[in-house]
Design brief:
Elements (H helix, E strand, L loop, with lengths): L1 H5 L7 H10 L1 H11 L6 H18 L8 H9 L10 H13 L10 H9 L1 H18 L10 H13 L9 H10 L6 H19 L19 H6 L6 H13 L5 H21 L11 H13 L14 H6 L6 H20 L2 E3 L2 E3 L8 H4 L4 H7 L8 H12 L3 H7 L10
Antiparallel strand pairs: 1-2
Helix pairs in contact: 4-6, 5-6, 7-8, 7-9, 8-11, 9-11, 13-14, 14-17, 17-19
């Protein structure tokens, strides 16, 4: 086996190769039968065999006795991440057939795996079964081979080891939701959205009595005081000012005020990190304002100053992204709003009244969003396709107060609007 795995490809040919592989028939036969299920070339077959034999020689153990940790390393180091004829795909099949191990990871073609194991026509019929209610409800068809609905449905089939969607249980949906946490980057987020769509269809078909997982974006967010009290990266005095702004600023809609306070907390964490001596608005000067604008435009990343309790923080840490033009404008706009309000009226902070803020500089100019950022934020309108336009007209014509309340606990606009 060591000779087969380490010898140059040009050396391991002809009678020499047949003699070596004949002695390895016990391992060669199940490998060939599994590889025969894929559309492979001889060179790909030789590469996959070499990869498998290398790890068996290294571990001294037959591949069907490998624990999940070794299989995970074998799969992750195999070439051909998305090719169904590559080494990685062959390793995925071997692990599933012989070790009851389904690898969970990004760029894993679960649809192709399910089609080989359960049959192309069976998988296609079951995916169409859950797709139809979603299309009737107005969701995009997602009919391409690598579509997320097909991907997550196939994943459920493989974990359930049964292709029929009527056998999907609430516990299976929860298990898949937990497993998706092991996928880094955007795959985790898009996978969970697709799982929510699948769950919606299963409820519509009567397979599930009620949703097993909830859309985290609909969960009640913590209040500003709660965030302030549990934020170790925020100076308590700045947090008290944010709380006062939240409680004492009139005329602001609840959602707008909450969003403004979120960005004020971001500014407070920035102060605590780079300028810890500045703890309240009166200590700001124009130079500090310019420094904050420069940092926000050039250095800030999405999620970098979010609270530790933020559910998206880990995602942004794994996949760093620069702030969008809209994100930059929102951060700076929050400070423009805050300083403008502080100059208009007095506030009481920690039980102590503070007069209107007197500045020797113009906050609206100091926190102004640069013109190039504003230009990049401008919309790029496109013509609405006719079928999409009809859907919008129908949705508007059938919208009721009950539907509006079901979508949002506190609608920003009234039904007539």
């Amino acid at each position: 086996m060591e000779q087969s795995a380490t010898a140059p490809a040009a050396f391991m040919t002809g009678g020499r190769a047949r003699n070596v592989l004949a002695q390895l028939a016990r391992f060669e036969a199940p490998f060939l039968e599994t590889a025969g299920l894929t559309s492979h070339m001889d060179t790909t077959l030789a590469a996959a065999r070499r990869h498998l034999f290398t790890f068996m020689a290294r571990t001294g153990t037959a591949f069907w006795a490998w624990p999940k940790e070794i299989w995970r390393e074998v799969i992750q180091t195999a070439p051909g991440r998305t090719h169904t004829s590559g080494t990685r795909f062959c390793m995925l099949l071997l692990a599933y057939f012989f070790s009851d191990m389904l690898y969970i990871g990004a760029s894993t073609v679960y649809g192709a795996l399910a089609e080989i194991i359960f049959g192309h026509s069976v998988v296609e019929a079951e995916v169409n079964k859950v797709r139809t209610p979603l299309v009737e409800a107005g969701y995009a068809p997602d009919q391409k081979a690598g579509g997320r609905l097909q991907w997550v449905t196939a994943l459920c089939m493989l974990i359930n080891r049964h292709p029929v969607v009527e056998t999907v249980s609430a516990q299976l949906i929860v298990s898949v939701h937990d497993l998706l946490a092991d996928i880094p980057g955007t795959g985790q987020m898009t996978g969970r959205w697709a799982l929510l769509r699948l769950q919606t269809s299963l409820c519509h078909l009567g397979i599930l009595d009620e949703p097993a997982i909830l859309d985290s974006s609909r969960e009640q967010r913590a209040s500003v005081p709660a965030v302030w009290q549990n934020d170790a990266r925020l100076d308590p005095l700045w947090g008290a000012w944010v709380r006062a702004f939240s409680d004492q600023t009139p005329y602001e809609h609840e959602i707008s005020r909450r969003q403004t306070c979120d960005f004020l907390l971001v500014a407070g964490r920035w102060l605590n990190k780079y300028h810890p001596d500045v703890r309240e608005p009166a200590q700001w000067d124009e130079a500090l304002a310019v420094a904050y604008v420069a940092s926000t435009c050039n250095e800030a990343k999405r999620g970098d100053l979010s609270p530790a309790s933020s559910k998206k923080r880990a995602y942004y840490q794994n996949t760093p992204q620069k702030l969008s033009p809209g994100g930059i404008d929102n951060r700076l706009g929050a400070l423009r709003t805050c300083f403008s309000q502080l100059q208009r009226r007095p506030y009481t902070v920690n039980g102590k009244p503070h007069p209107r803020l007197q500045l020797t500089w113009l906050s609206q100019e100091a926190f102004k969003t640069p013109n190039d950022i504003l230009a990049a934020r401008r919309p790029n309108p496109k013509d609405i396709q006719e079928d999409s336009g009809f859907k919008l007209i129908w949705a508007a014509g059938t919208l009721t107060k009950d539907k509006l309340s079901a979508h949002s606990r506190n609608p920003q606009y009234p039904l007539a609007y």
